[in-house]
Amino acid sequence: MDGRLTSRAFTIVGLLLISFLSTPTYAQSSDSENTSCCSDTGFDLFLLDESSDGKLSPFENELSDEQEATVTAWQQGEVEVGSWETIWGTEGDYPADTWVFTIPYLVEGAAGVTINATLDIRIGGSFYSGNSGLNGVEPFLNAEGNLEISVQVSSGSVNDGDKLEVSLYVNSLLFSNPTQEAGLTFKWGSEDSVGKINGKMPLVNIRIKEASVTSGLVYFPIILNSGFGGEMWSLSSGTFNLQGSPLTLSPIATPTESGVEVTFVWEMPEGTESGTYSTDFTLSPQSGLEITASKNHEIDVDDNNGGGGSYYPSSEPLRDSGSEISVEVDMKFEGDLIEKKIEISFDSAMSQWMRWGMDNIGNSSLDSNSWWKNLNSYSDSVASSHRNNGKVDDDELLALTSHITGSSSDMRSFMQNGLSLDIESILGINPVDLGPTEYQIDMGGTRSFAAEKITIKIETSYSVIDNERQLLIENFIRNPSNNYWDDVDINLEIKTSMLAGLGPVSAENIDFEHRRWIFLEAININQNDISVDENFRIEFLPSGNMAFSPLISAMLCVFALCIAIGMGLFLTRNRSSAPALISVSSLGGLSLVIYVLGMPMQIVLAIVASSILLVFPISLVSPKSNREKRRKNKSPRIECPACETSNPVESNVRPLRIECSGCGVMLRIEE
Prior knowledge:
With 671 residues, the protein is of the alpha+beta class. It folds into five domains: 23-37 and 204-299, Immunoglobulin-like; 43-199, Sandwich (Jelly Rolls), CATH 2.60.120.260; 323-544, no CATH class; 548-621; 635-669, no CATH class. Helix content is 20%, strand content 38%. Strands 3, 4, 5, 6, 8, 9, 10, 11, 12, 14, 15 and 16 form a twelve-stranded mixed beta sheet that branches. Helix 4 (394-406) packs across helix 5, helix 7 runs antiparallel to helix 8 and helix 8 (578-596) runs antiparallel to helix 9. The longest helix has 22 residues, at 550-571.
């Protein structure tokens, strides 16, 4: 007993000495836990892509496009509905369990159908099969619902590189009251039609490494070992809590040999004390599946000798953790020339990738498919002391700027292969056709390795050909499926001079505001949180006709309305002018409204011209004026002695004979 106590005491003393002598930059773990999933917990593998080239994925975020396959009443024998597979990369054992396959169906052209179906499962060299019938009774399907097939899977082992394949076959169909179009359609691949198989397999191993402290920043690296590489992080949702509160700074994701390393960053507030800090990490590849790991760290807040003041990954950071991109475009249209100022801003994973890449220009250890190898020719222009020093120096920034300025093909390569952006969709024209172009890269508040915003500024101009559509902007995310970008923000404005008009504007799936004033015409777009796979486009058609410019068109409208008013007054000099003036005023007000709202100038001028044409018929049908009647009412009158009718005297001639309007008697007026 005493020997055990002595041994335990020596062990404790030894651990204390190791802790004391170890470097203060790294925290010592007091409680470490590795978490593996999911040999004991069932999870779903979702059916994706077409039946002939199907894919299995544990990530719910990959559900997108619905796929379907139909088996008709007239097909004979065994029919393969689909086959879905994936290459497994996580080694381990899986237990004996019942795997459940679920796929939505729709019965068409019949009251229902009795189905005999078989599901085959291959895990490496092991094969398992199950039938749709329960206790020998085949299921009867009607309308729509989900077909479920259970398969008994024996315990076994899966190795790195083994194929996991699921195949569905229909052996026979017996339709009830079928028509000529009778068939059974299976659907999968979308959020509305979820096809899946639920089972237990080793999916991922999570290991929280020891934290490191550098100049007020604490870094918590987490290793995710799985056969899905960076997708295990980029296609999952994950949270990291420190003392129960989530960290908000963007994590750093870098590839490893067997997965991905995700490093969370904590900026210690003033007054933080040294001590034990608990951390909890949660990874959720799909709804209902949360994989957690926890670890306690001893944090020394007095460590401020970390050199560069920031954590620095040894390998190229991943870009597929999702970043937000903002594009601001300020344009001026002069009739035959467009001047553009463009700002492309982004942060998070893409900012980390770009900062790391510029700091590794000329690095011989870069991966063979790294885009930054394109800048190896600039390695001599970068001082060796600046390379891989944890921040972007002036010569490294100049190297990238010179590279994209040197040729349009290099700039296109950086945008397309580096940032996954179609630069032509942002510029509105092929980069080869640009005039003098200036590029500037703004690193934001810091040049250190961080997730802070980077802004690429482009200032350029190009010529415009009349009566050719000019693209303002369209969807510029090249490959939404690579998960480089989460959301897109667009802020665009184009203004013209008083003698240049934009012409007709057409837009698809994007809102815009078009306004026309006397001295300019403008289009504004302010859209936030646009989906990366949204297809949008906006363009205009300049005519080059001066009559359609804001100033000249306004002058033509005013001149035409003045003519219409003048003609209306002239044609109604003996009639009521109110109808003509009201019509001209109404059409003038309508033309003003559509002029300001940016409607095509052809419509504006047509409405103004119609006001002139409508004056003629309106004047002809206008009632005669009452001025003559009022003049007659003011004339002297004489009363007939026979019938006492009052008769107007319209002449000053004396003597005067007039006929009585009442009885017809001739009246003679002497004086």
